[in-house]
Design goal:
This protein is of the alpha+beta class. The chain is built from 21 helices and 16 strands.
């Protein structure tokens, strides 16, 4: 029978420690110290208290805890001397049924890992959904983490222990993860659709209006109908729009959502999490037969990433009247214009101007998004409240020098375009770091027709400069461009530079940020406020209405735009609960 928090709060310390027995391998001291924070009003609050005890312990205590864990598929499993919890977990991942080849590989990895780090490999083998990783996934993770520096791997081992405890707590207290599990499953089912050339390699790529993109739109629209939305349509730019009507037809509307396109060989959660979390909330409202005092509009934006055409935020931009007609003449890599792609998809181009929303009829826009960075992951926090979306400016540049023979051109006579670009890249790194929260990236470098024995006469590059405020962004850009001019003058080079994007910073509306903060507090979690370095659909909607965002922790050091992008069903569940709290609190505000 599952425990309840009421029982835990009412128990004596010894009784409560016994209730939490088995969370940590042979380390009851963690539970004992965490229980000093009783009473707990939520399971996430209890888990956070346990995390803080371990995070505040010294390195020796952490090392002892790690060493208390058994090897995966190791001697303890063969001798049947694992704890009941470890036996269940290793069995769930199929480690008790390894082939001889898999067992030999795991034994070798265990030996290599122990020799490198001095402690056993720790992995939450039940995975992000709690149903168990495959043996192939376990081995691939093992191999990848062998390359980590020792201090990084030490912290990663502790983070996996936190995840193991999260799963064990859910089992002990009978936590219902239906929302999180369903959201996780939607991501998995949508990820089967991928563009040709990538699908065959098992990679996820969904770019604007490809067959895979249109299949995703159809799948999302069907799921929206299943969830109980009153109206579902695919609009003139390919956005999937679901509306859950209010009690009164003349009510205002709250908009939420995110994008369903992806970068090339990307992750499953970037954007799509912000569609599926509100979908789950609408499903619960529909099942309860409950209406809100405002319309809820959930939008799967058709395009945000700018992968097929040089037009970012196409889906959300259309809603604020920022769809540029000249985009229609852009061609993709195969020569297909955007106009032709839209016509082939059956979209009515003439209707695009009608998509513009009237801000007077909207309460605001809220967005749930995976963080796409390491902050929440490293802090051990499942949710973060966004304070502002960074402003950005992008350039494409070309430095022109003189190509010459690599063997005969003296070093002091060279006009090396690549060396100048490298010098700028190093300056950019130093200058952005000086601000603390600015970032600068030279993500593209190319020496056209370069040869190993030729001094580069041309180098093409990109610049991506971002900062929390427009003034800070502009100061960074001014300094970088001034340094570029100085480098070229000193080296006798010529530079061409084109600004390709300028996006204003989008600070969160204070009232909406406060609503997110109260939603996180209501779950018993600490509120962490943070800026967003990445751009999001919210920054386009910011041009027309107040907005605020909630971040959800990413796994694997928060990596994104990468197949390793991941989050857990538990964190998705918390995001859905936070959004549901915001929706309910807003309803209460409007009916007081």
């Amino acid at each position: 029978m599952a425990y309840t928090l009421e029982q835990l709060n009412a128990a004596t310390t010894d009784e409560a420690v016994a209730m939490l027995d088995g969370l940590y391998e042979h380390s009851p001291w963690i539970a004992r110290q965490a229980l000093a924070s009783r009473p707990f009003r939520s399971l996430p609050q209890l888990q956070d208290a346990l995390r803080r005890v371990l995070d505040e312990a010294d390195a020796e205590a952490g090392l002892a805890l790690i060493r208390a864990h058994p090897e995966l598929a190791g001697r303890a499993m063969q001798d049947n001397s694992l704890t009941a919890e470890s036996t269940h977990e290793q069995d769930k991942a199929g480690l008790t049924h390894c082939s001889p080849e898999e067992l030999a590989r795991l034994r070798q990895l265990n030996a290599d890992y122990l020799a490198r780090f001095g402690f056993p490999f720790i992995l939450a083998v039940r995975g992000p959904r709690g149903i168990g990783l495959t043996r192939g996934q376990i081995i691939a993770t093992f191999e990848r983490r062998l390359d980590n520096p020792p201090d990084v791997e030490f912290r990663e081992a502790l983070r996996n222990i936190h995840r193991i405890v999260e799963i064990r707590l859910a089992d002990k207290f009978g936590l219902d993860l239906t929302l999180g599990n369903d959201i996780w499953d939607w991501h998995e089912r949508l990820s089967v659709h991928s563009d040709p050339g990538y699908a065959e390699q098992g990679q996820l790529t969904v770019t604007y209006l490809t067959d895979a993109h249109r299949a995703c739109a159809q799948r999302i629209s069907h799921w929206m109908r299943d969830c109980g939305f009153d109206e579902v349509e695919i609009d003139a730019v390919g956005n999937v729009v679901g509306r859950y009507r209010a009690e009164r037809a003349d009510a205002a509307t709250l908009m939420t959502g995110s994008h369903y396109d992806t970068v090339r060989n990307g992750g499953k959660y970037d954007g799509r999490l912000g569609i599926f979390v509100p979908m789950a909330c609408v499903r619960e409202l529909h099942r309860q037969g409950r209406r809100l005092p405002y319309h809820l509009e959930v939008i799967g934006f058709a395009e945000e990433e700018g992968q097929r055409y040089a037009a970012t935020f196409l889906g959300s931009g259309a809603l604020v009247g920022d769809f540029k007609p000249e985009w229609l003449d852009q061609r993709d890599a195969q020569g297909t214009t955007m106009r032709e792609a839209m016509q082939h998809a059956g979209l009515c181009i003439d209707d695009i101007p009608t998509l513009r929303r009237d801000p007077a009829r909207y309460l605001g826009f809220v967005e749930v998004h995976i963080e796409q960075g390491p902050v929440l992951f490293e802090m051990g926090l499942p949710l973060g409240v966004v304070t502002s979306i960074n402003g950005s400016v992008r350039y494409r540049g070309r430095i022109v020098g003189m190509a010459s023979h690599a063997g005969t051109t003296p070093m002091d006579r060279r006009r090396d375009a690549a060396a100048a670009t490298a010098e700028l890249a190093l300056y950019l790194e130093r200058r952005a770091a000086r601000d603390g929260d600015s970032v600068g990236t030279m993500g593209m470098l190319d020496v056209p027709n370069g040869s190993i024995n030729v001094v580069p006469g041309e180098c093409r590059f990109s610049l991506d400069l971002r900062a929390p405020g427009n003034a800070q962004r502009d100061a960074l850009a001014t300094d970088v461009l001034a340094e570029l001019a100085a480098i070229c003058q000193r080296r006798g080079l010529r530079c061409e530079l084109e600004e390709t994007l300028r996006a204003a910073a989008a600070p969160s509306a204070p009232a909406w940020q406060a609503r997110w903060e109260r939603a996180v507090e209501a779950l018993g979690l600490p509120v962490h406020r943070m800026p967003s370095g990445a751009g999001h659909d919210a920054m386009k909607l910011h041009e027309a209405m107040p907005q605020a965002m909630l971040f959800v922790r990413g796994q694997n050091f928060g990596i994104s735009h990468n197949p390793l992008e991941s989050t857990t069903a538990n964190d998705m569940q918390l995001a859905a609960q936070a959004l549901r709290h915001l929706l309910d609190a807003l309803a209460h505000e409007m009916t007081r």
